[in-house]
């Protein structure tokens, strides 16, 4: 009878440790690598104005452009790993920020709907819900063959429900469980914070994922 709580504690500890490491990496990417690249970028711009040969100016300009593109990619990756707004502003603003990145990356338009008033949650709950939504969106990009999706946040006094829908190709759920570890990871994450996770899908009609979390 005591094995299940022990297993849950271990799983929770592993996930929390992973999140702390992800947060550290995201901060290092933004504050460390990102700042170093920016210093190199400004240096390349200075060199471009100093050299006289036109061919060399063009070459240095191309290198500066490449550095600028890399800086942008590093910053986007840092936000994807751990959006700062998740800690400072909450789950809903973090999702809005992430969806802009998601659409620009994958070309999939996601409508975000919110009903009711957002309720403050613990950090563990916020990051779990964000990660599950992130995984669901990643699956849409990988497998759904859809150009549009909808995420609905439904807030009540005692529960938050999140519904993620796409109108893509859908899949056989039994086969999906065999081929994807992401589905089990989403369900496990929700279970560890006392929530529920439900999946429905019909081939040719799309997929629906529902998250339900009691709010105390």
Automatic annotation (TrEMBL):
It is found in: Cytoplasm. It comes from the Bacteria. Its main location: cytoplasm. It catalyses: ATP + protein L-histidine = ADP + protein N-phospho-L-histidine. Residues 28-216 form the Histidine kinase domain. Signal peptide: none annotated. InterPro entries: HATPase_C_sf, HATPase_dom, His_kinase_dom, Sensor_HK_TwoCompSys, Sig_transdc_His_kin-like_C, Sig_transdc_His_kin_sub3_dim/P. Gene3D superfamilies: 1.20.5.1930, Histidine kinase-like ATPase, C-terminal domain. Its EC number is 2.7.13.3. SUPFAM superfamilies: ATPase domain of HSP90 chaperone/DNA topoisomerase II/histidine kinase. This is Oxygen sensor histidine kinase NreB. It comes from Cytobacillus mangrovibacter.
